[in-house]
Amino acid sequence: MARSVILGTGAAAPSKILTNQDLERIVDTSDEWICTRTGVKQRHIAEDGETTSSLATEASLQALEMAGVSPEDVDMIVVGTTSPDMYMPNTGALVQKNIGAHKAFAFDVFAACSGFVYALSVADKFAKDKLNSKILVIGAELLSTITDWQDRNTCVLFGDAAGAVLLSGEPKGDRGILSTHLRSDGSLWELLHIPGGGCVYPPSAEMAEKRDYCIRMQGNEVFKHAVRSLTDIAKEALKANHFSPDDVDWFIPHQANIRIMKQVAERLEIPIERVYVNIDRYGNTSSASIPVALNEANRLGRIKRGDVVLLDAFGGGFTWGAVIIRW
Ligand code: COA
Hints:
Number of domains: 2
Oligomer: single chain
Helix content: 25-40%
Number of strands: 13
CATH superfamily of the largest domain: Thiolase/Chalcone synthase
Largest sheet: 5 strands, mixed
Number of helices: 11
Radius of gyration: 19 Å
Bound molecules: coenzyme A
């Protein structure tokens, strides 16, 4: 049976770090509140010249190097992002130019914090359709550019980063992506959205003054939906593969809030020791959070060949999804 196998991983984040203590000087908050309510201690924030595509490019080059694959052999690039460099061209096209992947076609997937899991699911289908194809799947964000730095409800949560994997369509074997599971519920869009910048509310001086190009969220409502949806879709993925929680070696959920991760792990009966957590150092990096965590776990040797890895994402839309991989 054909399978998509991850041959390499990479990640990048800006060198500038914004700590909770730094935020105490910007909004009415405290390190204690942020740590206990979210688990975030610091986040990376882009400086001049750093863009979503530049971070995506760095992460991609690392993934290619690990895989031993040349950019010229890449067939497809797909980027999950909600903070593209521009609305046109797509971020994937900029990565294609930057790395010199001349024969690849490129596009973005717009699914908020589920962007990477959505992109990986799409790439999985392409990879199995065209065996031996090489596909870069990226999650990349500069959330700092769409964060309202005067809104303490949201600005303490987010950070900038990119993560990438190099996927290969292999003719057979028991390694690789075992299944993907995606869901959406557009009826709940208002709970987490960016009001301005699209055709409904185009850019204007008034929009900029109200900072309506920034993320607006009803945090506690989102929290409840996130816990329920992440749990349900992960259970569906386990059931589809006849796995029990004990079969999962690494659970890598979207890094949105440590309390969400703990509640989901508890409901899934996966011990916290098998949950990969790096939200303390990155904050919520939306589409980038899962591939950044996956790359860390991979490069640290925490994930071993043959391990079962469960990815689980939730984001605006609402969108959510899970992927099971045998490493
Ligand atoms: N510092 C200090 N106090 C803060 C604060 C901050 N940064 N942000 C909010 N507060 C205050 C609120 O004003 C409120 O005060 P009040 O009780 O006097 O009205 C109190 O803290 C509780 O606010 P609430 O929003 O109920 O907190 P919470 O426990 O739900 O935590 C979030 C807020 C945002 C951390 C939490 O809801 C969350 O993580 N939600 C999901 C976010 C998410 O996952 N988003 C992305 C999905 S991909």
